[in-house]
Inverse folding.
């Protein structure tokens, strides 16, 4: 297996991998252009590829917010899971974070025990006192008809 940087021609295989692993939906807005923009702002997108077949078997997308890296869409093709490839790709991701001098933050579903165990074994710590919140469609909440029950002073 080879770990290399993302190339524009990779997106079709990336999208296929993400769909196969269940971490992708069109609504998330994860496109080739978004990947390139994030990389241009200090992030990095790594792919794990079988050099003989040229099949992508893993992805690690790290975005940079100016003070830390966020690990997104870390995935290993289901047919290749359980072989230690996730650890190899995660270590390469940690190497990039170390070179950049940044902490690396991620989110993982509680039920994904293989991933939870991997991240624990690599020294990631769980924030016990935090809940994760996200607004998927910010514009909907800017609609004049939307009310969160707070006065805005207008």
């Amino acid at each position: 297996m080879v770990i290399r940087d993302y190339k524009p021609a990779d997106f079709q295989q990336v999208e296929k991998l993400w769909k196969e692993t269940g971490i992708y939906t069109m609504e998330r807005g994860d496109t080739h252009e978004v990947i390139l923009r994030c990389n241009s702002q200090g992030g990095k997108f790594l792919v794990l590829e079988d050099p003989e077949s040229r099949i992508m078997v893993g992805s690690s997308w790290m975005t940079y917010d100016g003070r830390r890296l966020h690990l997104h869409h870390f995935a290993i093709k289901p047919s290749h899971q359980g072989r230690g490839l996730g650890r190899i790709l995660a270590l390469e991701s940690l190497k990039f974070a170390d070179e950049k001098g940044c902490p690396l933050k991620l989110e993982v579903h509680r039920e994904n025990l293989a991933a939870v165990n991997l991240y624990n074994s690599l020294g990631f710590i769980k924030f016990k006192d935090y809940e994760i919140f996200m607004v998927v469609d910010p514009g909907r909440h800017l609609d004049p008809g939307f009310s969160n029950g707070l006065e805005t002073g207008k």
